[in-house]
DNA sequence: TATTGTTATACTCTATAACTATA
DNA sequence: TATAGTTATAGAGTATAACAATA
């Protein structure tokens, strides 16, 4: 049953090693650009369709003040527009401008090209399987982290104390 | 040959999604602690054996000033010690103190326990394969990033121009 | 009262530039 | 000259607290 401690420990280190490698590559890619990786992340989710700020913050995993600032920055760059939610006077709806769509497309094309180049000796199947593996890992982490944050006991011991 | 654009684009997003999930979990784990994730990373590599600061910075993928500050912080916390390299008057050798070893072990145990818990419905084989997959991806990225940084042309077009 | 969003402030992590000391 | 390391400074990204406006 479950995962052995040594395997879990190895997996932790593999995750952090990947983080480090990605950080270096991403940092090199945005050097001298106005739109840093955080703003790029916001653009991505706004690009999936007009959305509330609250919803965006949740999907991005950042706090509301952080998102508020990012939206303000993107608006200043002319990449997004805000309008009031017709169904809720407190809320805003954020959407990409044409310039924002261009920017997002450009960012995606650049990233895709770099990764294609970096993985040029990989097979299509390897890349596809890796994407699936990452997705599965991320979903497990998000699900468990949500449950933990909500105070749901996870181990049998904790459940007894509950 | 190689990886299709759509697959590469998907993989990029899977990588960033994992980063986000891990950031949230890691941030929650170090809340209120002296030893943040960056210092924990330094501890890990120092824990593999007494090492030069330069070597550590390279392995961590950070600049020399950043590592210098981290080492100073860890020394202040009594977790590492520095001594001059007997073979090079300019260089230092950094090693864990007993307290540093304790701290590293405690960090690893805590992380391992959390990941084991989060992946409690995973099989040992799935976890092992995921670790291997991450390792392969990281190695490909690091290798290509190194080559790019060194100015080695990567695409046939660029090679022709060289 | 609870929720949406903003502003003010501070912390973590990182980088570049300028420097000292040694090779 | 080149390398190892430090200090000073700046920037990106994030969080908490306090607030205003609306539900």
Outline the fold blueprint.
Two copies of one chain form a homodimer.
Chain A: H1 5-30, H2 37-46, E1 51-52, H3 53-60, H4 64-76, E2 80-85, E3 88-96, H5 98-118, H6 124-149, H7 156-161
Antiparallel strand pairs in A: 1-3, 2-3
The structure holds a DNA duplex (23 and 23 nucleotides).
Give the rounded overall mean pLDDT of chain A: 93
Give the largest interface: A-B, 62 and 61 residues
Find the CATH topology of the domain at 34-118 in chain A: Arc Repressor Mutant, subunit A
Architecture (CATH level 2) name of the domain at 34-118 in chain A? Orthogonal Bundle
Order of helices and strands of chain A: HHEHHEEHHH
Strand content of chain A: 5-15%
CATH homologous superfamily assignment of the domain at 34-118 in chain A: Winged helix-like DNA-binding domain superfamily/Winged helix DNA-binding domain
Radius of gyration of chain A using CA atoms only: 19 Å
Protein structure class of chain A: mainly alpha
Summarize the amount of helix of chain A as a percent range: 55-70%
Q: How many strand units of chain A? A: 3
Oligomer state of the chains in this structure:
homodimer
CATH hierarchy class name of the domain at 34-118 in chain A: Mainly Alpha
Strand order of the largest sheet of chain A: 1-3-2
**Low-pLDDT regions of chain A:** 153-162
Q: Separation of termini of chain A?
A: 24 Å
Shape of chain A: globular
| Sheet of most strands of chain A | 3 strands, antiparallel
The total count of helices of chain A amounts to: 7
Pfam families (chains A, B): MarR_2
InterPro entries (chains A, B): ArsR-like_HTH, HTH_ArsR_DNA-bd_dom, HTH_MarR-typ, MarR/SlyA-like, WH-like_DNA-bd_sf, WH_DNA-bd_sf
Region (Disordered) (chains A, B): 142-162
Domain HTH marR-type (chains A, B): 8-139
């Amino acid at each position: 049953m479950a995962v052995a401690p040594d395997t879990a420990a190895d997996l932790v280190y593999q995750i952090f090693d990947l983080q480090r490698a990605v950080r270096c590559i991403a940092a090199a890619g945005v050097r001298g650009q106005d739109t840093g990786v955080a703003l790029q992340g916001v653009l991505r989710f706004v690009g999936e369709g007009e959305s509330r700020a609250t919803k965006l913050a949740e999907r991005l995993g950042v706090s509301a003040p952080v998102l508020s600032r990012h939206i303000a920055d993107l608006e200043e760059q002319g990449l997004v527009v805000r309008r009031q939610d017709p169904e809720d006077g407190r809320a805003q709806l954020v959407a990409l401008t044409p310039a924002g769509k261009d920017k997002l497309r450009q960012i995606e094309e650049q990233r895709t090209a770099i990764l294609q180049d970096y993985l040029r000796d990989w097979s299509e199947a390897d890349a596809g399987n890796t994407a699936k593996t990452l997705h599965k890992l991320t979903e497990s982490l998000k699900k468990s982290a949500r449950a933990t944050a909500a105070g749901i006991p996870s181990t049998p011991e904790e459940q007894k104390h509950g």
